[in-house]
Design a protein that fits this description.
heterodimer, A: mainly beta, Methylamine Dehydrogenase, Chain H, five-stranded antiparallel beta sheet, four-stranded antiparallel beta sheet, 31 strands, 5% helix, disordered N terminus, B: mainly beta, 1 helix, 32 strands
């Protein structure tokens, strides 16, 4: 009897370890780096497109983490405004959310689509599988669940999140979930309605976390990976700071803590995560801007280093060069027990308006994407201190807004 | 030549024989959509919560020769199947459902669309699958002429969506999504867009969207291969501000459209140019008596299969303590100009006729009274269009949608 029990335990442990190994990003000698761009404008100014762009779609560059070598970018797929990218867990498919800013008059209500691409694993070229409406407008975020069976989208304009099934061949199928958010926040110009800005599954794939910039709430939904449905958790959300504007969210690698970045105030709210119950408890509000900062800031991206010890977030000016902004990437050390943050440094991104950045899967480099200055700058990461130092390598790509990595198979 | 003529005669004879055989067998299933959780929605709130005893979609047999309607039986259990549509091959039924308890606020109820296979002998429905509608408080569903797409109006979230239908009748992926924008003068219900219906034109090349929130009727191009609606800013007609366009009906030739507005009770007669997709107002016909004093919400509109008459319903907006018209208006259609002349305002044999429908033979009209829980059968005079009582009715709790399917098809 005891033997059977031990055997069962062993099987469960093996299953768990296989799963963990499978879900952690595999490191490789070389990566395809895909860069999403705005092709129709430079940035959104109070809901309206401003400036121009010479980009034509998704660009691809080859990256060798051992040397930091980055090849000249080439067009991997021609597509209008590929604003957000996500890679399937099996690394074979790339999904892209696109916004057509000229489709509809009003602020934030751009027709939005999701496209599925097969990745040619030898040359990195993308082959379009199919394109569907996202089920919302001004879709600004896309993620894939851990099974690779569902694409999840945040539709900023029409205040909804949607989930679409992924077929076995990687193409997009039927919609499995649609949730609309309601309400408003304190900022009359930006928060007169709900604006979901991101959606990410928890490390165990049992919950989805939605940051809503419009209503200052971080929502938790139960996610059913068999049906793709979302249902409200209990409690259904965590109140964020009024006027803060939760934008992006990240779990730590162990799934013990969650970090919510607020676009307007630049706060990172640290929360401990009870993965059994699906509940958050606030631990810390960490400021990312200097206390004496005066100017206009929109914080944008947040990510945790693969070693789990450091957190990075970006602060950008939100208009043209005439309006002062911080334009920095903040580095924070994570307390391994409490999850709390201590600032290490704030680094200039060697460009203007760092809307996004991405850390390569080996953890050696950070790619800072400067939307306004049209360059992607490679920073070396010190794995012991988390500190960033700029390299001389950069990609000249117009209006870069999203980066993902796919290992090259030989 | 003579042989050809003979062959032609034979074909006609066969066709006649076929149609007379059909005429002898004029049995239909009538499917009734209901609210199961409440009685009616007013001021964007659900009223009479817990007072409906309906359990889903009901089916009843209708004999078009006699006008007899059998007892209603539960065809499929379902929460609030508020609008139904039938595939052109009569094999599938699609129902939208609203879950009024899903999201707190009025008008933002989580909404789903379900596909059912119809048992052609018993009329029972077998669930195939259910998907989200891509919007909230979905209030209308229709099908394109090929039967490959369902089109839905999402009243709450202000959008219309198109979902592909697979070969087996089940629902597939989202094919089109359009967010409407704008508002109109009524501070209460027109602060945002509220598409209330979406219907393809008889030639399947356009989809007409009636938006109660913006007082606009939009004509999207419809691509029957991909299910796409375009452009995002299509040609449109405006109704008088504050009217609230609700349901739309085409004449059989597709030359004229009739737009019923909920709040004003006006039918806008619109000439449709199918080459440009434009709608031009020809007439604004009032359906309420000039001396009417009270609150009316017009509900349903339908053109008689002969193309000679138009019917529309005017209902009270609250339960029986508040007076309303509760009538069906009959209008004669001018065959050339498309304009309307009033014929009759008939009672409906009950309270709050949210919907009605004309049987496919054109001999009877079935009126569904949401508060008095009955479906009442009226005879139609084919020459004048007038309605007269048959004395026949059946009981169905909170009926809100009626659709016909031929038996044994």
């Amino acid at each position: 009897m005891k033997n059977i029990r031990n055997f069962a335990l062993f099987v469960i442990l093996v299953a768990l370890s296989v799963r963990l190994a499978w879900s952690s990003p595999a490191t490789a000698d070389e990566y395809f780096v895909y860069v999403g761009t705005y092709t129709g404008f430079t940035f959104m100014n109070e809901g309206l497109p401003a400036g121009g762009s010479h980009s034509n779609g998704i660009y691809m560059s080859r990256f060798k983490p051992a040397t930091g070598e980055l090849s000249k970018p080439e067009l991997a797929a021609e597509i209008v405004n590929p604003a957000y990218l996500a890679v399937a867990p099996n690394q074979r498919f790339l999904y892209v959310a696109t916004e057509d800013p000229l489709s509809l008059g009003p602020d934030f209500d751009h027709a939005s689509y999701i496209s599925a691409f097969a990745i040619d694993q030898t040359n990195g070229k993308l082959h379009l599988l199919n394109t569907l409406p996202t089920g919302g407008t001004s879709t600004c975020y896309l993620s894939i669940d851990k099974t690779g069976h569902y694409a999840m989208m945040a539709n900023f304009g029409s205040s909804s999140v949607t989930v679409i099934r992924i077929n076995d061949d990687g193409s997009l199928g039927q919609q499995t979930a649609f949730i609309k958010h309601i309400g408003h926040g304190r900022d009359a110009s930006f928060q007169n309605k709900a604006h979901p800005h991101s959606i990410d599954v928890s490390p165990d794939n049992r919950f989805a976390v939605v940051s809503d910039l419009g209503v200052d709430k971080v929502f938790v939904y139960k996610f059913d990976e068999k049906t793709g449905t979302l249902s409200p958790d209990n409690p259904p959300f965590v109140e964020a700071e009024s006027g803060g504007g939760p934008r992006h969210f990240v779990f730590d690698a162990a799934g013990k803590f969650g970090y919510s970045l607020h676009e307007m105030t630049g706060f990172v709210t640290v929360m401990s995560w009870d993965s059994a119950a699906g509940t958050f408890t606030k631990v810390q509000d960490a400021k990312t801007l200097a206390p004496d900062f005066i100017g206009a800031n929109d914080s944008a991206e947040i990510a945790i280093h693969p070693n789990g010890r450091f957190l990075y977030e970006s602060n950008r000016r939100f208009r043209g060069p005439d309006l002062f902004g911080p334009d920095s990437i903040g580095v924070f050390a994570i307390d391994p027990a409490k999850g709390t943050l201590t600032e290490v440094e704030q680094v200039p991104p060697q460009g203007t308006m760092p809307r996004q950045f991405a850390i390569d899967p080996t953890g050696g480099y950070l790619f800072a994407e400067n939307e306004k200055s049209g360059n992607v700058v490679l920073f070396r990461i010190d794995g012991n201190t988390g500190k960033l130092s700029p390299t001389k390598t950069e990609l000249k790509i117009d209006v870069p807004v999203c980066i993902v990595f796919v290992p090259v198979h030989r | 030549m003579r042989r050809i003529r003979c062959a032609f005669c034979l074909v006609i004879l066969f066709a006649l024989a076929g149609s007379s055989a059909l005429a002898q067998d004029k049995d239909y299933f009538v499917y009734v959509g209901t609210y199961t959780g409440f009685k009616f929605v007013r001021r964007s709130k659900t009223n009479g919560v817990g007072e409906s005893h309906s359990k889903g979609i009901y089916v009843s047999r209708f004999h078009a020769d006699t006008g007899d309607l059998g007892e209603a039986q539960l065809a499929a259990e379902m929460i609030n199947p508020s609008f139904l549509t039938i595939s052109p091959n009569h094999r599938f039924l699609y129902a939208v459902s609203e879950d009024p308890y899903s999201v707190g606020p009025p008008l933002d109820h989580a909404s789903y669309v379900s596909a059912f296979a119809i048992d052609s002998s018993t009329g029972k429905l077998r669930l195939l699958n259910t998907v989200p509608t891509s919007g909230t408080s979905t209030c209308f569903i229709s099908m394109d002429k090929t039967g490959k797409f369902v089109l839905m109006a999402n009243f709450g979230s202000g959008s219309v969506s198109v979902v592909r239908v697979k070969e087996d009748g089940s629902l597939g992926e989202l094919a089109s999504f359009i967010q409407d924008v704008g508002h109109s003068v009524n501070q209460f219900i027109q602060t945002e867009p509220h598409p209330h219906s979406i219907l393809v034109t008889p030639d399947n090349r356009y989809a007409i969207v009636s938006d109660l929130g913006t007082d606009k009727v939009l004509a999207f191009r419809f691509d029957s291969n991909t299910g796409m609606l375009s452009p995002p800013r299509p040609p449109s007609a405006s109704v008088y501000p504050g009217s609230g366009p609700r349901h739309f009906a085409f004449d059989p030739a597709g030359k004229f459209g009739y737009q019923l507005s909920e709040m004003s009770g006006v039918v806008d007669v619109l000439a449709f140019d199918s080459s440009k997709g434009t709608l031009t107002t020809v007439q604004r016909a009032q359906t309420m008596p000039h001396d009417f004093f009270g609150i009316n919400h017009s509900g349903e509109i339908e053109v008689h299969p002969s193309g000679k008459f138009l019917y529309e319903s005017n209902r009270r907006t609250s339960s029986d303590d508040e007076w309303g018209l509760d009538t069906i208006g009959v209008f004669a259609i001018d065959p050339v100009k498309g304009t309307l002349t009033p014929v009759q305002a008939s009672p409906t044999g009950g309270i709050m006729p949210r919907t009605f429908t004309i049987d496919p033979t054109g001999k009877y009209l079935l009126a569904a009274n949401q508060i008095s829980n009955n479906v009442v059968i009226y005879a139609i005079d084919g020459a004048t269009g007038q309605l007269s009582k048959t004395g026949k009715e059946i009981a169905v709790d909170t009926p809100v949608c009626l659709k016909f399917v031929p038996v044994g098809h």
